[in-house]
Amino acid sequence: MTANHLVLSGQILRSRQFDSPAGIAHCILTLEHKSQRFEVEMLRNVYCQIQVVLSGDRFNSITDKLKAGVEIEVAGFIALQQSRNGQNRLVLHAENVELKT
After folding, report:
1. What distance in Å separates the CA atoms of residue 49 and residue 51, rounded to the nearest whole number?
2. Torsion sign across C-alpha atoms 5, 82, 12, 25
């Protein structure tokens, strides 16, 4: 199987930008998603937070607008990332980001 595509909208809780030792620009966001979805014919409240990684120069024109409180829609792929303390988490690597108004 090779399918790995996720589209998620939500509000940015926090963001930070940095360049890697290789000189690649990165913007790391925490995205908060809230919605309601039907599951087994019942309305369910859905909530999650996920880290979003924007890498490379193609996002340079938008990263200065990605601040806490901004609504966005992100499309990309998910990957497992291990934190410094050994905790595993899923991270959304952005391929496209749109500001929502």
Report:
1. 7
2. negative
Q: For the chain, how far is it from start to end, CA to CA, in angstroms?
A: 36
Closest to 100 measured CA to CA, from 16, 23, 9: 9
pTM of the model: 0.91
Query: In order of start, what are the domains of the chain with their CATH numbers?
Result: 8-91 (2.40.50.140)
pLDDT tens-place string over residues 9-30: 999 999 999 999 999 999 999 9
User: In angstroms, how far is CA 71 from the centroid of its own chain?
Assistant: 11
CA-CA distance, 100 to 31, in Å (whole number)?
13
Residue with tokens 């998910």: 78
Q: Which two tokens stand for residue 89?
A: 């988490």
How far is the C-alpha of 9 from the C-alpha of 1, rounded, in Å? 25
